[in-house]
Write a structure and sequence with these properties.
The radius of gyration is 19 Å and the shape is elongated. By secondary structure, it is mainly α. The longest helix has 34 residues, at 72-105. The chain contains seven helices and no strands. Helices cover 84% and strands 0% of the residues.
Length: 226
């Protein structure tokens, strides 16, 4: 019975994660296409659904612990779902922030061609997907790989910052628009950080060890690293 309840929790979490992933993709797509409808959909329709899913999962996790008092790996898995639920709720908030900045930007001339922002968003969405795949398959190696890709996102964020500083210095009229672009990059970076948290939690769930303060040496063992 406990195994079935945990499987049900996983299924609900995956469904929630799919919504958050869609919100992130939709917010960037709305920005790139200057599609107000998509951006408002993230804010007005998807955010309430995400909030309701977070509350439901929180209650389900609490009830499971109270009823079954899980031990060992079952307890680690339940605690991870509880924490991932919180991480996904924060990701959803960041997706809404991106959509709100998008609404501001699509009504105004572009500061610069959007090249690094969609690349950053693509990497971030991929991290979200893979962190959840690592969770579903209990794949610690994939989780470590997700943690390693956080550096790629950080590098793109720094590149965006450098370019926008140049634009703002050359033309002060671009400052407010550039700050919204920086906010978008910052929100994408936070989503990547939260995906990394999930990767670390998968390793805890599978291997029962914490890599948060020892991530560099663990990442070296990830696929594609040498």
């Amino acid at each position: 019975m406990l195994e079935e309840r945990i499987a049900s929790l996983k299924a609900r979490l995956i469904e929630y994660a799919g919504l958050v992933q869609d919100m992130t993709e939709k917010s960037i797509r709305g920005l790139m296409r200057k599609d107000e409808r998509l951006l408002r959909e993230v804010i007005e329709k998807d955010e309430p659904r995400a909030n309701a899913a977070e509350i439901e999962l929180d209650e389900l996790c609490t009830t499971l612990v109270a009823q079954y008092e899980p031990k060992a790996k079952d307890l680690r898995t339940t605690l991870m779902i509880f924490k991932m639920n919180s991480d996904l709720e924060r990701m959803a908030d960041h997706a809404v922030n991106i959509a709100e900045s998008g609404l501001y930007l699509i009504e105004r001339p572009a500061v610069k061609p959007l090249l690094d922002t969609p690349r950053m968003a693509e990497e971030v969405v991929s991290m979200v997907k893979d962190s959840l795949q690592a969770f579903v398959n209990e794949d610690a190696r994939l989780a470590k790989a997700v943690c390693g890709r956080d550096d790629i996102v950080d590098g793109l964020a720094r590149q965006i910052l450098r370019e926008l500083i140049t634009y703002m210095a050359a033309d002060p009229s671009t400052i407010e628009r550039a700050l919204h672009l920086l906010d978008i990059a910052g929100n994408l970076e936070r989503i990547a950080d939260l995906s990394t948290n999930i990767g670390e939690d998968v390793i805890f769930m599978v291997e029962g060890r914490v890599i948060k303060h020892h991530r560099e040496e663990d990442i070296q063992a990830a696929p594609g690293k040498s």
